[in-house]
């Protein structure tokens, strides 16, 4: 008999009282809550249908705000002195989404820059490249003179001529490759410092390439 009286008393709770209790609970929590959490707080003594009606009424009266998240309505306290409507929440979420997108783009840029820096760090330093270019240039010049001398009347076998020509071609190719590497490193440095190429190479005592 006592149990029946308790059940009867539960059904006689007015919607206004339920709304007040829900509002007090949400304001006390001061964090996003779902209808399931609210129902648990009331020990499942109030049906979810009544809870939903009360929540809808509180939202319509701008006493609380809500946002649909993963197909579930999430309810939050409206901070004192700050009007936060659903439209404002949507704007904030759009801004957050845009910032996340920008952050992802910046991360990609940073990754690419780190990759470029890693490649540059694996390359020989400027002094080594400058010395190698100078050495190869001298060797190419020497071989060029030797070939010209032989063409003008020097005695050389066909096999030696082929060998010298191949070596000359190899050195020219290697020289070009080293110059390209040196130029890429130099361009990367200039891009980061904003210095002029001619002034920079002159300051370091390097040959312009």
Automatic annotation (TrEMBL):
PANTHER family in the cross-refs: HOMOLOGOUS-PAIRING PROTEIN 2 HOMOLOG, TBP-1 INTERACTING PROTEIN
Pfam families registered for this protein in UniProt: WHD_TBPIP
Nucleus is among the record's keywords: yes
Keyword Nucleus: yes
A biological process from GO: meiotic joint molecule formation
Highest rank taxon of the organism: Eukaryota
GO molecular function: double-stranded DNA binding; recombinase activator activity
GO CC annotation, single: condensed nuclear chromosome
Family: Belongs to the HOP2 family.
Domain Homologous-pairing protein 2 winged helix per the UniProt entry, residue ranges: 19-76
Coiled coil: 82-123
Major place of residence: nucleus
Entry keyword set: Coiled coil, DNA recombination, Meiosis, Nucleus
Cellular compartments annotated: Nucleus
Native source species: Hamiltosporidium tvaerminnensis
Entry protein name: Tat binding protein 1-interacting protein
């Amino acid at each position: 008999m006592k149990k029946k009286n308790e059940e009867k008393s539960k059904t006689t709770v007015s919607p206004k009282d339920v709304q007040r209790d829900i509002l007090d609970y949400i304001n006390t929590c001061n964090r996003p809550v779902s209808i399931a959490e609210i129902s648990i707080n009331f020990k499942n003594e109030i049906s979810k249908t009544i809870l939903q009606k009360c929540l809808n009424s509180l939202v319509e009266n701008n006493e609380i705000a809500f946002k649909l998240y993963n197909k579930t309505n999430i309810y939050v306290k409206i901070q004192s002195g700050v009007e936060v409507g659903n439209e404002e929440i949507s704007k904030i979420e759009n801004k957050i989404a845009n910032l996340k997108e920008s952050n992802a783009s910046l991360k990609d840029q940073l990754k690419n820059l780190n990759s470029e820096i890693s490649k540059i760090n694996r390359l020989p330093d400027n002094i080594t490249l400058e010395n190698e270019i100078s050495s190869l240039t001298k060797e190419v010049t020497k071989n060029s003179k030797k070939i010209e001398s032989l063409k003008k009347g020097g005695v050389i076998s066909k096999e030696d001529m082929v060998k010298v020509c191949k070596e000359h071609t190899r050195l020219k190719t290697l020289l070009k490759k080293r110059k390209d590497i040196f130029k890429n490193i130099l361009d990367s440095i200039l891009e980061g410092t904003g210095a002029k190429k001619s002034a920079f190479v002159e300051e370091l005592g390097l040959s312009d390439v």
